[in-house]
Amino acid sequence: LFCFLVKTKLTIDSMDLSQRLLGNFKTETRKTESLDPSSYDTKGIVKDPTLSIIVFPNIDDDQVRDTLNKEITLEDFLEHLEDILNCPLRTNKKFDSKLLREQLRGVDFTMTTTLSRDPKEKIDMYTCHKLVRQIVIKRLGLIGFDVILYYSRDGDEIFCKILPADEEIFMIEAENRQYVCQLREDLEPDANKYAAAYHQFLSKHKDKFQKYDADDNPIPNGPEGSYFRHIDKMRISINRLSPFLDIGCLLKKGYLVNSYNLHDYKYLDELKDTWANFKEFYSFPQPLEKIRSYFGETICLYFAWMEYYVKWLVFASCFGIFCKLAGTFHAYSADTNITSVVTLHWNQTWNIIFGGFVIIWASVFCELWDQKNAEYKTEWGTSNFVETQPPRPEFEGERIMDPLTGKHDKYYPEWKRTAKKIVSYSIAVVMVMGVISTVSAIFIYKSEHKGVDNINTYCSLLNTVQIKIFNFVYSTLAVWSNNWENHRTQSDFDDALAFKLFLFQFVNCYNSFFYIAFVKKTLECPPPVKGDDDTDSSQTTDSNCDITTELQTQLLTIMVINLMLNLVELGMPYAMFKLKQYKEAKKVDSQIEEGFDSRKETCYTENQSKLGTYGGTLDDYLEVVIQYGYVLLFGVSEPLVIVMALVNIVMEIRVDAFKLCYLLRRPNPSVSESLGIWDDILRVLSGLGVITNVGIIIFTTNFLEIDTSAIVTNETVATVIVVSIRMFFFVAIEHIMFVAKALISTYVPDRSERVETIFRKAQRIVRTYMYSETVTIAADDEESIQEQTTQKKLREIYKSDPHEPINKERFEGLTTI
Fold first, then answer.
1. Which of 353, 415, 658, 674 has the most CB within a 10 Å radius?
2. Rounded distance, CA 645 to CA 563, Å?
3. Distances in Å between the alpha carbon of 510 and those of 197, 468, 503, 632, 693?
């Protein structure tokens, strides 16, 4: 490798190739013993304090070096360094040698001199990689991290383990970043048995914050332990590292092969046994607190919502089964003549009741989820959480000075992004037209082959395959167009992508259902046939026009296929993991045959580098929300579809948990206080559910019969009367349902009374112990809270006696001052 001394006291002894391939580096760190791959057994049970791992390509490996034979201009490389170091290297758009030397202080002098040449000169990629590797390790040391380097077993990669910094560095960084930590549980035991209090970390009040042992268990305040759990240290380290090194940019430019967080098997094995286990298929509740402590609030909130959804699906499934059985064995076929023209048929009574139930069920579910979400925010300390996100590695723009902060930052004109969005949505429109054309072709084919047995089932399968293919194609295009739009932060990128994908998949997944429910009867089916008793049965002689049965077949087919595709979600990551292991093992065997002293055994840190990367909760939410739409929009046609949805969701929970624990690397532990854009999408679907369910009842089923033969003979006039009457019933029932939804939304508070009490108690603990406000404030006395805050501020300004009441009129004009 190369020998140098950095602030972290890292030293690498000279050794032959066989020793280096074994990774037996002799290292010295400030507080940690020397660790190497041989220190762990195959499961990695030994406690490893590593925060994360970055992997360099070993540029001295023959195969790797063959890929670095090209050259780039020095100017291009310096632009790479600007992005990697997050700092300007130019003055008046020209590279400044003084700035360059300052940023590369401590790096090999020969290489630094190389960068001072003419920017138009060429530089080989080998030198670029060597310099970047020095810069990265140097900067890690300068900001307080200890590192350990060792080779992979086949020698083509160099693993760099980043170890925790000193506790003082974490405290300083947490205070600078306004990181929220939990206050001690023993400050007020009676209050804390309900919920913990949280506040931004302050060094001067550090004795008020909770301490944890090495296993992240709370301990009494004392000299031992840390104020930060392992997951807190991971977050703080990411925040500390981002202003100095852009890891995403290093990966994008190819200077790093990998970057990932290390799984801690001590905690992971517990989650595998109790959560990511198909033997615990119907075991609820989930260990949400352990999931949160290991994966972070964003992932935990996804599983919390899924669990809450399952509970409501159990209730709805019981009612759906009851409606199905009641409709099968106790069909009620009486009629109600409202007038001589309008008659109500009650032969599908239970389906209609179930449709009304689903509408109210969805409304109550959304409102009570808001209450549950408020409870989680209070318990986890994420209320009013605002995350300052760094720019995405893919974000490109011109570096200019921010007039507010005085720092150089990338800027991209909004008008350019808007123009690109127009093109992106134009692509989506073209794809939607392709979907409509394909679905139309399927239905034309079905209408031309009416006599074929099971034609409805075959076409339902064909439609399901079409949905999956178009979803895959557009997902690829959507990611490309979203990258092209050049969004600054990851949250902006995710929200834009979620909106695009949902809009397209809404059309792609539901368009055939809308056609069957509202269009097919008019275009393809002959008029109703009169019975012997001169009553209108509202049925046709064409078996292909049984709309309700066709909707049922379509729904159940999609649900079953979605259930089967969950196995593919597990199979693909597992197959890729095994393929990577096989390729590396084959390469090691060939090296041993050629005489190299390569090691056949592999440590768990290297195994984890071959696991898949977690892409975030976007795809998971999208899959579940689309399925939620099937239940909500078309559940009136088949009550049993909600039972299939329940099985699907329970399977989805276990599959996603299994992937996270067995097949994917540990993701960055991000924080979220809500479902974000998915909350709005769920409410939109709830509103559309009213329209579709009422529409199916009025326009598709035979619930409403209108016979105008007794009053008019003109067919055009009769059609107008029929449409008008149906529209009247549709608008009336739909308005009644929307009024019911509005009443539910109005009278169900965002926080339950219990959560409101907990929230105010936590606020009082914070005021009492962080701001020395010892006055007891009633839980429902908001004016008293504001009054005490005002009094405190006035005393601080005018240095008055803390026991003397403040005359607010005396200080009139304080706000202006």
1. 658
2. 9
3. 45, 12, 11, 12, 14
Question: pLDDT by residue (tens digit) across 127-165?
Answer: 888 888 988 888 888 888 888 888 888 888 899 998 887
Q: What would the DSSP string read from start to end of 338-384?
A: SSSSEEEE-TTHHHHHHHHHHHHHHHHHHHHHHHHHHHHHHHHT-TT
Which of 622, 538, 647, 705 shows the shortest CA–CA distance to 320?
647
| Token pair of 194 as six digits | 């309900």
Residues 645, 623: Cα–Cα separation, whole Å: 12
What predicted TM-score, i.e. pTM, was given to this entire model? Answer: 0.82
pLDDT in tens, 753-800: 888 888 888 888 888 888 765 444 443 444 444 555 555 555 555 444
pLDDT at 56: 92
At 211-224, the pLDDT tens digits run: 888 888 888 887 78
- pLDDT confidence of residue 697: 83
Tokens (6 digits) for 249:
């940019």
* Burial zone of 433 (CB within 10 Å; 0-12 exposed, 13-18 middle, 19+ buried): exposed
pLDDT at 561 over 60: yes
User: In Å, what is the CA distance from 512 to each residue of 258, 467, 747?
Assistant: 43, 10, 37
Least Cα distance to 488 among 565, 414, 385 occurs for 414
Q: Is the pLDDT at 309 greater than 90, yes or no?
A: yes
Spatial distance between the Cα atoms of 638 and 591, rounded to a whole number of angstroms: 62
Buried/exposed code over 24-46 (b: 16+ C-beta within 10 A; e: otherwise)? bbebebeebeebbbeebeeebee
Q: How far apart are CA 801 and CA 206, in angstroms?
A: 28
User: Phi-psi region for residue 758, left (φ > 0), alpha (ψ -120 to 50) or beta?
Assistant: alpha
For residue 36, pLDDT over 50 is answered with: no
Residue 676 predicted with pLDDT over 80: yes
Q: Cβ–Cβ contacts within 10 Å for residue 314, how many? A: 14
Both tokens assigned to 531? 């019975």
Distance, in Å, from the CA atom of 298 to the CA atom of 494, rounded to the nearest integer, reads 13
The 10 Å CB-count burial string (b at 16+, else e) for 483-494 is eebbbbebbbbb
What does the H/E/C string look like for 699-745?
Answer: HHCCCEEECCCCCCCCHHHHHHHHHHHHHHHHHHHHHHHHHHHHHHH
For residues 538 and 465, the answer to whether their CB atoms sit within 8 Å is no
The Cα 484–Cα 47 span in angstroms is 43
The DSSP code for 505 is: H
310 contact partners, CB below 8 Å, separation of at least 6: 284, 646, 649, 650, 653
- Provide the pLDDT confidence category of residue 817 given band limits of 50, 70 and 90: very low
